[in-house]
Amino acid sequence: MEDLKFKIFGLINKQVRQLPPCYNNSLPVLFNYNPNNAVKVPVMGLHPELLNPIESHRIARPKLDEATDFTIDNEPQPLPDQDVLESIETIYFHTEPPTDPSRHELQKLPDILSPEEIENSYKRLKLQQQVVSKKVLQLILQKQNSYEQEFQKILSIQSQLRQILEICRIGRNDLKLAKRQFTTASLGILANYRKRRVIEDLLDSLNTVKTLQRTGNRLQELLKQRNYPGVISLLLECQSAARTYKHFTCIAALDGKLQDILEQAEVALDATLSQMCAQFDKEVYSSVQQAYALLGKTQTAMDLLHMHFTAAIHNTAFSTVHSYVGGDTKTQYKQLCRLVPRDKCIACLTDLSKSLWTILESYYLVVVWHDARSPVVDRGTTPCEKEDSPDFSQTPFDDDYVKQKLRNSMMRIWHDVEMKISTYLTHTDLAYVKFEEFVRVLAIVNRLMEVGRELCDFQSENLRESIKRQSLSYFMHHHASRLDELRIFLENDGWELCPIKPGFVATQLQEFKTLKPALNDCKTLNNSGSLDGSNFTDADSSTNVEWLRRYFGGTSKATVTPNEGDNNDSPFTLGLDETQDEDILVDDRDDVPAYFSDDYSDDDPDDTAIARRKHKNKQCGPMVTNTTLSILRVCGRYLQMSRLLRSIAVTVIQSMIQFFELCFYTVHLFFTADLQINSDSLYSPKLRLTLARIRESLIVLESDLEEPTSSLNNINKVKQPHLSSTVDLTRPEKLHGLTERIVAVESLIFLGQQYESLKPYLEHLILDSPQRGFLHQFFLQTVAAATDLRKPVYMAVASQALDVATILALMNKVNWEVTDVMSQHSNYIDELLKEIHTLHERLREIGSRLPLSSEIHDSMWENVAHLITHTLVEGFSNAKKCSNGGRALMQLDFTQLRSKFEKIACLRPMPHREYVELYVKAYYLPEDSLEEWIKEHKEYSTKHLIGLVSSACQNNKKTRLRLISIVEERPGR
Fold first, then answer.
1. First CA to last CA across the chain, in angstroms?
2. What is the dihedral of CA 932, 937, 942, 946, to 10 degrees?
3. Which position has the higher pLDDT, 66 or 131?
4. To the nearest whole number, what is the mean pLDDT of the chain?
5. Residue of 498, 492, 495 whose CA lies nearest to 725
6. 923 closest CA partner among 964, 953, 889, 967
7. Do 14 and 127 form a contact (C-beta atoms < 8 A)?
8. SS3 assignment, position 862
């Protein structure tokens, strides 16, 4: 057995392997075993293999497949230390829970023991123990320097501890000495000094308590002085002191009193803050904000401020309207608006706007006040502003909250104001106010909308819609009255010339004063050919901000300092009633043209005098009647409405067009009723269509009134006017009222010219409307047809001034079958020239009292020539037979008439001369050519052509009948 035991131990000693690196810091205590069964602590560093590891490593390593072959007779080569360490089981490195290695190894033995297995196990364990011991020794050697350094530190600490102990010993000895040397008297002095300090502290506390007791009176004085920052600062200081001395019984009651005063101060702050809504004061508002900042309630202050603004808008609107109505204060605001008397509607609206404007102004100044005290440095704040701005110690969060609150609430504040105004407009009866007063309403509302756009870029749709409904309702009622009024003016107009200064235009009237800037801009852009919606800006819009800024101190809201804004008048009290004197009438001798002077003489019959008179006439003022001026004034008022409220511009312009159309139709009706000839050539197609359209759309005839459905069909129509009995159109010496006819027609043409001058602005007003096509049609047809009215009106005079029946009777007596060519013209030419001369004299007499332009002069003589030429053709066509001598006589008569006419009328060549010349020349045409001539010339009537055929073909009945049949089959003229 002993041999077996030795072999096992030997085997264990040979099985040494190296431990793994992860267990280097937790190695167990290992022992070497010798054959004498003595367990000893290994002598570290004395083992030959440990002291000379290089030699031990020189032993050749066995092959991997022989590593586990541990036998006594045939020993294998030693394994590397690392492999030995890795082969150690992990259980040997566990400390928790404790492990018994011996038991572990015994448990590993099989039930049937084998000497070889035991020997192998012994060698393996011994080899592992040797490798671990060697590894531990190596680690110890590696840490030896660190060990020596730490050991030196320990020695140093021990030296310091000895010094400290020595100091403590000396101190104890000194204390013992002091204890022995101090006497009772010295300790008494210290005790008395301590008592004195306690008493001084007590006196300070009593003085503080006394001061706190008297603080209540001081706080009440500061409240009366509205020194809110002082009140809050003193209160906070007192509360802090009260918390310090709360151990005194009297302080408990004082703390409650201070709390009551603090509540009073907050109530006073809230009341003062509410006053800022109606009348902003920079100093007071700064004091209130500083007080809230001291309380740490900046956000609460802004919430309260907006609540006060909302309540102020409601209360102010209600109280303002109630002051005009009276009665129960519990009546709703809408009902109060319905009860406002008609004669006080405008005054109530003005006061309501002023009151709400004060609130808006205060809110605006609040916003500016906070913007001016922004903590951001790089906003360009001047040193003066920084010095003037108190430090409220607001956090960035509070400042951002205030700015966001102000920004978001501006639109809500304006919306509340807008709703109060729009509710008033919706429930108030404005249908019977004067036009000037209604324009004032529009101006107020327009300025309110401008305020909304400037303050918060708000379009005020509710306000716009309410005033639009009121405007349309009012305008339809007002326009119907104005149309009927215009009809009465036309029926009572004497058609006399109004003495207007030369160069008069519609914009000189008072009603166009506010429109001048916009009209001038439109005219400039129209002349440059660039008038469109993109580059045209209403002239008022360029000053919209300017008038608003004037009431905020004259600066923009980015730089305004809220200092003097409270004393500015409301924008609803200035600029609405401004008037200016009109200077349009002739009021001195210098303004009167020469032909109005008593000493003016125009007896010079030569062409030079006539030309000089024409030149003077061209320099005179326009022909205008009182009715024309009235129409222009009404148009000016209408355009004021369109400027202030663009949404009704289409309706307003259509109503302006109806004024012109009614005047157009009336002039034609009055001054062509006595037209004694019927000729299609007097009316141009444009004039004929215009008159028919106006009669159908605007005029109500007496026969139409008898129909049952006339009330529905005749809305916005006017009864047909009747000429005043004071206008006499029958006196031949007055040329059958030619003066009145000229004034009527020319004033209508002048009215059309004024409409033309307003065209760019009218187009601008309805630029965005899909119905704007009617305006182009109006200028293209109706206005353009006004000059065509001269022909039928002046022809009515010519047809009565010339005795056509007498002339035709004299022409029927002429013998057109003469055989010889005559050298003397016929007698009817002398009679006709006599009447032309009489007409010329009467025209000169009218020209001495009335400025006759070249257009009037030429138009009048053109109508005379038209009548004469048609009369001559009529007379020539009455000739049943005509010889070559008779044809020559016709030419002689017309040549003589033409030369005299051109000299009298100063109109060369004579108008419509071709009408006579072609007719006379047709007598000379052969029969074949005459047929073609008849087919080509459709301007002659059937009677004229039959007379021509009868005279030209008097010897050839067959040809005469054939040509007459061709004439009769011709389409009717």
1. 165
2. -40
3. 131
4. 77
5. 492
6. 953
7. yes
8. helix
Torsion on CA atoms 508, 510, 515, 516, rounded to nearest 10: 30
718 DSSP β-pair partners: 699
Question: Residue 325 falls within a domain, yes or no?
Answer: yes
Q: Do 493 and 625 meet the contact criterion of CB atoms below 8 Å apart? A: yes
Average pLDDT, integer, range 721-746: 92
Q: What is the pLDDT of residues 608-629, one digit of tens each?
A: 444 444 444 444 678 899 999 9
Distance CA 173, CA 621 (A): 133
What mean pLDDT comes out for the span 148-156?
91
Burial 606-620 (b: 16+ CB within 10 A, else e): eeeebeebbeebeeb
Residue 285: which of 570, 563, 569, 567 has the closest Cα?
563
pLDDT of residue 429: 80
Average pLDDT over residues 448-459: 76
Task: Find the domain containing 373 and state its range.
Answer: 228-473
Question: Can you give the three-state secondary structure of 751-805, one letter per residue?
Answer: HHHHHHHHHHHHHHHCCCCCCCHHHHHHHHHHHCCCHHHHHHHHHHHHHHHCCHH
**SS3 of residue 700 by DSSP:** strand
Q: Considering only CA atoms, which of 543, 366, 545 is closest in space to residue 451? A: 545
In terms of domains, do 88 and 43 share one?
yes
Rounded to whole angstroms, how far apart are CA atoms 105 and 957?
168
Q: Per the omega criterion (within 30 degrees of 0), is the bond before 909 cis?
A: yes
Give the end of a domain, one of 789, 812, 841: 789
pLDDT tens digits along 307-333: 988 999 999 999 999 998 887 778 888
97 lies in the same domain as 46: yes
Residue 941 and residue 873 in contact, taking contact as beta carbons nearer than 8 Å: no
Residues 898, 799 share a domain = yes
- The fraction of the chain above a pLDDT of 70, given in percent, is 73
Mutual orientation of helices 738-765 and 790-801 as an angle, nearest 10°? 180
Cis ω before 97 (30° cut-off from 0): yes
- The verdict on 795 and 857 lying in the same domain is yes
**Do residues 488 and 596 share a domain?**
yes
Q: Are residues 768 and 870 in the same domain?
A: no
Question: What is the Cα 364 distance to its own chain's centre?
Answer: 19
Please give the DSSP secondary-structure letter assigned to residue 55.
H
Is residue 871 a part of any domain in this protein?
Answer: yes
Q: Are 358 and 570 in contact (CB under 8 A)?
A: yes
- Indicate the Cα dihedral angle 251, 252, 256, 257, nearest 10°: -30
What average pLDDT score do residues 155-168 get? 95
Question: Which H or E run contains 607?
Answer: helix 607-618
- Domain-ending residue, one of 789, 806, 840: 789
Q: Tell whether 185 is covered by a domain.
A: no
Bridge partners for 700 per DSSP? 719
DSSP labels for 502-559? TT--GGGSGGGGGGHHHHHHHHHHHHTT--STTT---TTHHHHHHHHHHTTTSS-TTT
Backbone Cα Rg of the chain: 61
Total domain count, the chain:
4
Token output for 936: 């080509």
Decide if 946 contacts 964 (C-beta within 8 A): yes
Burial (CB < 10 A; 0-12, 13-18, 19+), residue 518, is buried
Q: Are residues 763 and 776 in the same domain?
A: yes
State pLDDT tens for residues 702-720: 766 555 555 555 677 899 9
- Asked if 919 and 945 count as a contact pair (C-beta separation under 8 A), the reply is no
Nearest to 856 by CA among 599, 618, 685: 618
Residue 351, judged by CB atoms within 10 A of its CB (0-12, 13-18, 19+), counts as middle
- Strand, coil or helix: 718: strand
Strand, coil or helix: what is 677?
coil
For 841-868, how does the pLDDT look when each residue is reduced to its tens digit (9 = 90+)? Answer: 999 999 888 888 889 999 999 999 999 9
Tell which residue, 411, 405, 407, 404, has the closest CA to residue 458.
411
**Are 694 and 590 within one domain?**
yes
